[in-house]
Design brief:
Layout (H helix, E strand, L loop, with lengths): L2 H22 L4 H11 L3 H12 L1 H9 L8 H4 L7 H12 L16 H11 L1 H8 L5 H14 L3 H16 L7 H14 L16 H8 L2 H4 L12
């Protein structure tokens, strides 16, 4: 057996208990984070990061260690109504969330993969905003669909597996988790790469213009989350 296959078997064995817990309690955030962490060192995750870094727009961000200026939450409200910044500020305040602080020494960070991980984590709330996915269970499930499609992320794929299994054990949700997954996968295929975006260069631009640029305005009209769109 190839060394990577043996390593993968070891990792998968450690994930079974977490997958079982998540299938029973799909809203277990610490469990979801634990599963993501368990997948980080697998051959699948290494291959996914390699594919990401081969995409020209993402490769450019990695080379530059791009990290533009982020206004504080109270400053976001001073941007024009309907702008990316103002909508993000409203979303964060409504959800009781805050922005992650900019990583120290980002320009001199030696590890490309660590930069990508920090960038994905810092822009997570923007992904919710521009895709119209709320920050509840179904909205997070849809974001997992986007992550599996655009980031090739094995952790997102396993979370989707747990979510599908949970439908047999738990009462129905609105929307159905399968519908949320299908929507996220479809949206991820139609949307320009979210990780590649230089959001900081367009804080004052209308959110609607960003959605047009990403190519998702028509898909958003079919969203199962229309009534809870955080950018509405």
């Amino acid at each position: 057996m190839a060394p990577d296959s043996e390593r993968l078997r070891t990792h998968l064995a450690g994930m079974v208990d977490v997958l079982e817990r998540l299938s029973e309690h799909p809203d277990d955030v610490p469990g979801a984070i634990e599963l993501l962490n368990l997948t980080y060192d697998t051959p699948y995750a290494e291959a996914a990061r390699a594919r990401l870094k081969a995409e020209p727009a993402v490769a450019a961000l990695v080379r530059e260690r791009y990290w533009g200026p982020w206004p504080a939450v109270d400053e976001l409200a001073h941007y024009p109504q309907g702008s990316l910044a103002a909508c993000l500020g409203h979303h964060l305040v409504a959800e009781g969330l805050d922005l992650l602080p900019a990583p120290e020494g980002i320009a001199h960070l030696a590890d490309d993969d660590q930069y990508l991980q920090l960038r994905i984590r810092a822009t997570h709330d923007l992904w919710h905003l521009v895709t119209g996915c709320p920050t509840d269970l179904a909205g997070d499930v849809a974001i997992n669909g986007i992550g599996a499609r655009q980031l090739y992320h094995p952790g997102a794929a396993l979370l989707i597996c747990a979510d599908l299994l949970s439908r047999a054990l738990n009462p129905p949700t609105t929307p159905d988790l399968a519908e949320a997954i299908a929507y996220g996968l479809r949206l991820g295929g139609r949307c320009a790469p979210l990780l590649a975006q230089r959001w900081e260069e367009g804080w004052g631009e209308p959110l609607a213009a960003w959605r047009d640029r990403l190519g998702i305005s028509a898909v958003l009209a079919e969203s199962p989350f229309l009534s809870r769109d955080p950018g509405a």
